[in-house]
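Example record

Each entry pairs one chain with its bound ligand, iron/sulfur cluster.
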Amino acid sequence: MSRVTSGGGWRAVLYTLKKAREVGGLWALWKAMRSKNACKTCAVGMGGQSGGMVNEAGHFPEVCKKSFQAMVADMQGGVKPEFFATYSVPQLRAFSPHQMEHSGRLVQPVVLEKGAQHYRPIEWADAMGRIAAKLKATKPDETFWYFSGRSSNEAGFLLQLFARLYGTNHVNNCSFYCHQASGVGLSSVIGTGAGTVKLEDMEHADIVFLIGGNPASNHPRLMRTLMTVRRRGGKVVVINPIIETGLVNFSVPSDPWALFFGAEIASTYVQPHVGGDLALMYGLMKRLRELQALAPRGNAAGEPVVDEDFLEHHATGWPELAARLESLSWDEIVAKSGVERAQIEAIAAQYAESKRAVFAWTMGVTHHLHGAATVQAIASLALMRRMVGRPGAGLQPIRGHSNIQGMGTVGVTPTLKKAIFDRLESHFGVTLPTTKGFDTLECLDAADEGKMRFGFCLGGNLYGASPDATFSRRAMGKIDTVVYMSTSLNTGHAWGTGSEETIILPVLARDEEPEPSTQESMFSYIRLSDGGRPRHVGPRSEVEIISDLAVRVLGEQTESAHSGRPPIDWRGMAHTSTIRTAISQLVPGLEEIASIDRTKKEFSIPGRALDKPSFPTPDGRATLLVHDLPAAPTGLQLMTIRSEGQFNTVVYEEEDLYRNQTRRDIVLIHPDDIRRLGLTPGGRCRIASAAGEMRGQIVAEFDQIRPGSVAMYYPESNILVPKSADPLSRTPAYKSIAVTLHPDAGQRSFVQPAPELIGAGTPRDKMNQCG
Ligand code: SF4
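Structure tokens for the complex follow.
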């Protein structure tokens, strides 16, 4: 393929037209995209009551290939009736993530029973009866409940409420595998785990630090914001071991000039070691102090380079951090960050002159054993110049799935926030369990120890997302019953199967729900999705399923201990408006959600965007923390990455356009390392880590990656990811994995599914199949 030199642009537009043909034409896709539903993909957030392709700042049309990919996947035909009879589970295990996704929409519950080789269709009543019977026969703390960020606030709230009243706190979500380090890191410094800015703050910044991420592929519409910053004369500092094409130049489809000529995004591009960000942050902080000493009267605008007055009155820990910066040598910083001192000084000089700085980061920061520490250091760097608590400046984790932040807000965490816990007990007159709730990895550890008998997955791909695929498979295989609520197939359905029974329940997509639902963007903006007509006969609404399950297990009602208080009406909880009323009374900041379906008024959660230097901590001050820097890498370091054609574990396209790759079984490696290791470009290699080994991978020459680092696609490469996790946040280290690489003659092979059984036709075809 010809080398792509710009992200987005005509290729994205042409892709959209091609996909439209596959799902019944451009008009059908346009109508679906413009419906009043929140985008199903990333947490930047689009759509809602403004209609699709409109962002929070009101820009239209915000065309985004990622959002089209998700929509097209939901518009595909149903899984053909003979599919499960044709393919055994061992055969499904040979399917790639892309092939699983393109097998069609799930339209009927299926079960895999002990000893069986095939899933088989069952009726809804049978499926629900089996699940309820298992729950009634199981101790609550031998069950766990895993949530993805795909589902609505209503489904998340209802399922966690049911799980707790059933008797367990083993409630967790996929953020434990991505941004938990952001939440923990931010909370420990400024008292809140959410970002402190709104989208418009980012647009008004005069410098944006983009650390460890590739939003050009994963959050495409953020590129317009970065383009706007550059056009106003602002700076964008990109910190990433890979030079990502779309972060250098992006052709913004909704901007005629940028569409034709592209827009420069990065004003400075830095390539640290994988995991070198913590040392780099310390280098920047150290240099700020040096600049302050050189210019005690401040920068060109007369603002202090280090705002000691602010630090004294609004933070604790500055003397300790200053002493640490004083004692830290430049040699150590340079060796451990992998960035030359002159470059650190140049970036610090830009930051020292800025008035409004936004620090944004993604999983290149969080996926390390020092992920939360790096977030703490980023926050300290911002606080040194008072860049938190003023408009147009702040801290922003760039989150993944469209409602992952909402899941945390409505209580999908092992430990409920005290305010929600207290309100739940007093409002409903119930007693909640106080036993320790396990995070995601702890649940799998418990399963591996034979202590879990039931696992329930509200969306997502727990097996696919987990580190150490060998361990994940083994752990899930020890659970008696595993239940999935899914729209389409993924590798978890083949590999993450239970020992007794695995049940897949087909669910409606967000824009097919019969009643409105809500989602929260990473900017803490609550959107209302109208729902819409189901594309298939068969799938059910998530809240209907959860309500049904609660009735079967707990009865129609859970009585309040307080006289005169109404009981929890589990059947009534099948209606999203009833759930929203409860959320509004129980979750601080979401009071307005009760009337959102009537007023249609979407809103920012109050208190999240910080424009005053007062922090939601007990004393209103931020806390600066001090760290040891992790050692510089000594051998090859693997970073798992996502491609332009995927979102989380879902692979929509095999090709990775912006990295000029056409397949996924590859190791991206610098030409210098290819020569040094005696590899052949295009040849096969064997790559091994402490967790596992992959053979027959193709050596992909890639001069955009820093020498000493190699990259492979997640989730396939999770075989190589050890399950060691950041001690502060429990986020697994999916990056900075020590690996060895050798030439290998071994071949990798897939059983290719018959084309006529996958990639089913249009929704109309599908209605015929299952109607
Ligand atoms: S940037 Fe994210 S929220 Fe916006 S349209 Fe694209 S995938 Fe959807």
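Residues 39, 41-42, 44-46, 62, 64, 66-67, 219-221 surround iron/sulfur cluster (CB under 6 Å).
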